[in-house]
Every structure is written in C-alpha cells, then in structure tokens.
Amino acid sequence: xxxxxxxxxxxxxxxxxxxxxxxxxxxxxxxxxxxxxxxxxxxxxxxxxxxxxxxxxxxxxxxxxxxxxxxxxxxxxxxxxxxxxxxxxxxxxxxxxxxxxxxxxxxxxxxxxxxxxxxxxxxxxxxxxxxxxxxxxxxxxxxxxxxxxxxxxxxxxxxxxxxxxxxxxxxxxxxxxxxxxxxxxxxxxxxxxxxxxxxxxxxxxxxxxxxxxxxxxxxxxxxxxxxxxxxxxxxxxxxxxxxxxxxxxxxxxxxxxxxxxxxxxxxxxxxxxxxxxxxxxxxxxxxxxxxxxxxxxxxxxxxxxxxxxxxxxxxxxxxxxxxxxxxxxxxxxxxxxxxxxxxxxxxxxxxxxxxxxxxxxxxxxxxxxxxxxxxxxxxxxxxxxxxxxxxxxxxxxxxxxxxxxxxxxxxxxxxxxxxxxxxxxxxxxxxxxxxx
Length: 436
Known about the structure:
7-stranded mixed beta sheet, 21 strands, globular, alpha+beta, 11 helices
C-alpha cells in the first residue's frame, strides 16, 4: 500500500501450522525518490532553517600525539562546514574534560552562508589539543545548543580518539538519555585508543552510525560524506508504528538493513494496541529493512487473521502502510516453507552477535569460545554473501574452510583490524535478488 512519501512492502510466509503462534515478517520501507517533493506536512531540509548541524571535536591532550590527529580534525571540520547548506543552522563544539562552543562563541547556532562558514573555519583553525575526555559533557552542550534552535532535522558528528576517562559511565549514560529524541549523532573514532562499545552506545541511542578512521588522513573525506548524507535528509522524526489486534502481541522489532539495530526496547505507546519505534530522519530514495516478530493466539485450520498493521508515521500523519497476516493450514509444505528474507536477516543478526561475542572472548583469553564464535561468523558471512565482513574476519582468523566455518585464531592481530571488524559487525547485505 502506498501513501504520499513512503512505500511499505511486507515479505513473509503467512502460513502457520495447527497451534502455530509465531509470525515473522521483513518490512521494507522506501522513501520517495524525488528530493524536490517531500511528503505533505513533513519537513524538508531544503527549507531554510529546517536543518541544524553540530560538529563535536575531541581536543583532549592525546589528539596531539601524533600532531597529525588535531591537524586532520581541524581540516575535516572545515571540510564538513563547506558542505552545510546555505540557510541551515550550524555550530562547532570542542570537548576535553569540559565542553565549550568554538563557533559561534556565544553558544548559539550560526546560519550557514559564505561569511559564517569562513568565520567558523577561522575559529576551528585555532583549536589546540590539551586536557581530558568527558564525552557526556560534550553531548550535553550540543543538546543545549540544539534545543534553543527551531530546526526539526538535528544532526551531530562526534569525533574522539580516546576513552571517556573523566566522568563516570553513569554520567555518560545520563547525558545520552537526555539527548535521545533531540538529535541524531554519527560517531567516529580516530586511531585505536578509543572504546568501540562507548561510541556504539552513543550512536545506537542517537540513531546514528559508528566507525573507525584508522588514519587521520581519512577524516576529511569521512566528515564530508557524513555531512552530505545529513544534508540530504528530508523527513524528520519518522516512526515505525506497529498495531496488533487483541489476540496478538509484538515480540520484537529490529532494523536489519543497512545495519542491525534492535529497536524492541524503544517502543513508546501510541494508542490502544499500538506502539511507535524510532527510525530517525530519512532522505529521498532511502530504503531500510525491518524484521518484525508477532505472537498470535492460534486459530482453527483455514482461518485467517490480521497479525499486525505496520505504518510509517511523522507525528500523526501516516506516510505508508503494510499488513502482516496469519493463516492456519494443515498443509505441511506451506507451513514449513522458510521465507528467504526472514532466514537471511536472521542470519545477519546472528552474524553481528557472534562477531562481538567472539571478539570479547578473544579479549578475555577464551580461545575455544573465540574460535567457535568467529568460525560461525565466517560461515554466516560466506553463506549470505557478506563479502565486506568476510574480508574483515580474514584479518582476525585464518580461514581453513569458509563453508563449515573452520578457522584458526591468528597469533597476532592488529588493533585496527579487530576494531574495524567490531565497529562494522552490524553492517548487513540485502538478500540477493535471485534468492528473493
């Protein structure tokens, strides 16, 4: 079914055996492909003032070692500023054991234009590295700046090279919680002295991405790409609304492409038998897949029920809608057919999990568990055609047989290769068309 702005396609095996309760569906959501025509009543980033950007730069002392890190961070920030569209709000924040506004210096938002961009780049050129790391304070200052600005599309880039050493985990968690639903945040770690789990916690809560930039020389291109992607967003604060009848309940909702992100714990009630799951902002032509699991009360053979109605909503406007059904049958061939999309994404979610478990076991010195988990990851990557992840795995294990997942742990693994595998473990590939 198509409404203005989005299409929602449901792929499932709707047949259940007698007594069957579990319904699984892959929901593919695609936004309209015309950047000039946002859905009625939604917010277009082309509207002056609709978008706001903050670049948060780590200026702790470690950014000086080597000196190329702070130099590259300044250059990357300048490159990102050049991509901010005229009329959008923007600001730059510096972070150490505290946080302060670099531009504008009074802690407000500037409006992007030739003069403000030039002034911002001049201010950024003066950044020096000295001090500690308290990322929660950086996020808190960004939140304060965003909330004083009327933009609907709010996005931040956060760069760090180290661990959050100068505040407690509880303080960071509280800051992240206050920032949820205020802005999205893409996180980048430069070098290998930062914690993947810390940045993943931030990016997951704030509906952004996390990645490693091993060489500071790569920061400018990465910042430019992130800012260009943010400037392309058109519709803010879109939610996946799942309604179930009284005889059904939601088991889980997970984004499974382009990356795995379990949204189940982020449900907010939106009416009788309905809940909303945040998906963030969308750009034109963007497509994502979600795995939705529903538990239903069994009905008689031949009976059919609507298991769930899935809608894309911005506020109370429905932008697209799809239906999940259940039909009970005594035809074993129908009820046991495995939907290829469901099977594929179940494997991709397991792939992310076993990579992270395997790397943690390796870190703890549990070689048996690490070998088993990373071997399973190799088999899953091979089976699904996830070549990027397979290449990353091959830098951590020696692959004896990819099909069976027979591997040996490498004696020496570079930190950068281990962290790249960890940060990118949640990236998925879509079902090959010939299998769909």
